Amino acid sequence: MSSSRREFLMSSGALGLAGLLGGVAPFGRAAHAAGAIKVGLLLPASGTYAPLGEAIRRGAELYVKSKGGALAGRAIEFTALDDESAPPKAAELTNKLIFGEKVDVLMGTVHSGVAAAMVKIAREAGVTTLVPNAGADAITGGLCAPNVFRTSFANGQVGEATAKAMLAGGVKEAITCTWRYAAGEEMVAGFKRVFEAGGGKVVKDIALPFPDVEFQSALAEIAAAKPQAVYSFFAGGGAAKFIKDFAGAGLKDKVQLWGPGFLTDGVEQAVGAAGDGVKTVLHYADGLTNPEDAAFRKAFQAAYGVAPDVYAVQGWDAMHVLDVGLTAVGGDVAKKDALHAAMAGASFASPRGPFAFSANRNPKQTFYLRELKGGKNVLLGVAAEGLADVGKGCKA
Ligand code: PHB
Fold it and tell me: Could you write out the DSSP letters of every residue in 214-253?
């Protein structure tokens, strides 16, 4: 909807109500019933993470559509900006959404570096903020704030869960291989902390600049070292290429390939048989048996013609958290303390399983062990149940 049309609808709603009240100024719930809530989306629409941004947006929009286009009686209007997964652009784009577009709710993003810059501004501005992917530990650690909610995971949290599964699977020695930025570094740090405490040995750390996909020298190092396993974080287009190059280098049947499930989510079709046997750990999987997941998958497939992935679930759940908050305040997004308190207490059935936040507003959740087989991240079991991140920074 154009802003002039929106303004027209808002003012005509207020006029209508003023008429009903015999000239008394509108107030409370009915006063804003005609206005849309503006949700600003800061997501990648270009680059290696573009498909992840699209899945998040689709999940969020589908949730709102499933509620008839409105939450707590208020239409939701999305305004999206492409952050290109480029941290230097983050501040300007965040300011544009908060102060230019004057969004009521900010939602973003995929890349940890972009999200950390976004959250620094959002926490000062006090705008209701939803993080539907980026795992930067600081977001629910040192940068934790009462108006910031993450519906995905913390980088260290998924690293820890993956370490547990690898130890349980008998892996004793690994090389880590990732992109050199907060997500890769923190997923490796969380992994190492638990893997080494459990007796595992990391024999080498390999890191490439983000978003490089020239994997040949890394793969040559791995081939020369012949470790039992590789623990790897890549995502989006980079993950698809890494898996294919790993197989192409002849490593597929010699070295176990493991990682947080971002390595295989959303790239199942792109990697084909090269991905068979890759084991990952994530808060989502193919083959969950809860009714919410069945309904979500059916609706997503019908709406977009493709199966959903973890990113779509995180976008869907972000709107569900907002829905819980808005319902508690009768759609009055200005009642921030009550809105944020209700959001923090949100507890519902997500496609991933039960959803609830720990005290720092990061999901406390179950992580599943999966194996990529025939284009599906087949559920093998539970890697960690009810796991919270280690963030302790949130006092509020
Ligand atoms: C991140 O930068 O935090 C990030 C990006 C992509 C993923 C997961 C985490 O798939």
Answer: --HHHHHHHHHH--SEEEEE--HHHHHHHHHHHHHTT-TT
Pocket test for ligand 1, best of 42, 110, 367 (most atoms within 8 A of CB): 110
Does position 34 have pLDDT exceeding 60, yes or no? no
Question: Is residue 183 in contact with ligand 1, taking CB distance under 6 Å?
Answer: yes
Provide the domain count of the chain.
2
Residue 59 pLDDT greater than 60, yes or no: yes
- Ligand 1 atom with least separation from CA of 239: 10
Using the predicted structure, report yes or no on whether residue 68 has a pLDDT greater than 50: yes
Task: Report pLDDT for 391.
Answer: 77
**DSSP structure class, residue 133:** S
Percent of the chain whose pLDDT exceeds 70: 90
User: Between helices 236-248 and 216-225, what is the axis angle to 10°?
Assistant: 50
Instruction: Write the CATH number for 187.
Output: 3.40.50.2300
User: What band does 30 get if pLDDT is binned at 50, 70 and 90?
Assistant: very low
Binding site membership of 111 for ligand 1 (Cβ less than 6 Å): yes
C-alpha 137: how far from chain center: 13
Say which residues have a Cβ less than 8 Å from residue 203's Cβ, sequence separation at least 6: 173, 174, 175, 225, 227
Cis before residue 44, ω within 30 degrees of 0?
Answer: no
Pocket test for ligand 1, best of 42, 109, 111 (most atoms within 8 A of CB): 111
- Residues 277 and 345 grouped into a single domain: no
Q: Does pLDDT of 146 surpass 60?
A: yes
Residue 376 forms part of a structural domain: yes
142 and 12: one domain? Answer: yes
The residues with which 82 forms a beta bridge, in sequence order, are 43
C-beta 110 within 6 A of ligand 1: yes
Q: Are residues 206 and 350 in the same domain?
A: no
11 within domain boundaries: yes
Based on the domain organization, do 120 and 142 belong to the same domain?
yes
Ligand 1 binding pocket includes 60 (Cβ within 6 Å): no
For ligand 1, the distance from its centroid to the CA atom of residue 135, given in whole angstroms, is 6
Asked whether residue 393 is domain-assigned, the answer is no
pLDDT of 18 reads 30
Distance 113 CA to ligand 1 centre (A): 10
Q: Is the CB of 282 under 6 A from ligand 1?
A: no
Give residue 49's domain range.
5-153+289-363
Q: Is 134 in the pocket of ligand 1 (CB under 6 A)?
A: yes
Predicted TM-score (pTM) of the model is 0.91
Are 186 and 255 in a shared domain?
A: yes
Question: Do residues 319 and 354 share a domain?
Answer: yes
Q: Is the Cβ atom of 235 under 6 angstroms away from ligand 1?
A: yes
